[in-house]
What does this fold into?
Amino acid sequence: MEGDLNEFQLSDILQFVSFGSRSGVLEILRTNGVHRINFTAGVITGLSAAGWSISEALLESNLVPQEVLDGLDLSNQADLRGPILAGSYMSAEDWNAFIARQVESLLYRLFDSRHGKFRFRQIDTIDFQWLPVKITTNRAVLEGTRWSETWSQVDPALRAPEARFGSSGTRPDAAVKLSPTQWRVFVASREPGSLNQLATRAVLSEVESLEALRALTGHGLVAIL
It folds into this structure.
C-alpha cells in the first residue's frame, strides 16, 4: 500500500492499517526525512525518524547526563526505563512525560503533513532505532487531532520554533484562577526557555504546555521574549 499525503489523511491511513490487524512498517516520506510507524497486529508498537535516537532525545531534554547514558546499554531501548528509574536519574512521572513528548514529535506532528508520500510494508526485520510504545489507532487519531487543532489555533508567535517564554513579572489587574497544569507551566517559566524546555520542567507534554501558555500569555503572566 502506498500513496500521496495530499490525497489521504494520516488518520485514514492509520485506521486502514489497524482495521486489517496488519503487522509491518508505515513509512511517511517527507522532505525532512523518513518517519516510521511500526504496527503489530494493528497496534502501533514503535516510532522512529531519520536522525532520531532516544539517547539524543534524553540529552537534548537535559534529563540524563552523558556519563550516565554512556554506562547504559542503549541497544535495548525497550529496557531503558528500568535502569534509569532504578538509578533515580528520572522519576516515573518524568519518564512518562518524556515519552509523551517523543510521541508528539515522532507521531502527532505528522497529522499536519499534507505533502509527501507514504507506503506500508509488511516486513519482519526491523533495523531502526525505535521508541517502544503501545498505542491504539483510535488513541493516536484522537491525540493527533488534538495536537493538530491546538497547534493551528494558537497565536503563530507561540508555536514559532525559536520562541522563548518567561515570566512577565507583572501582576494581573484582577485575580486569576489557574488550573494545576497552568500553574506548573507558570512556575517553569520563571526560568526562560523554549516550549520543550518548559514542558520538560513542568513534566508535561508539549500540547498540554502549549494550551497552558495560551492562557498564561492571555492573562499577561507569561511573555514571549
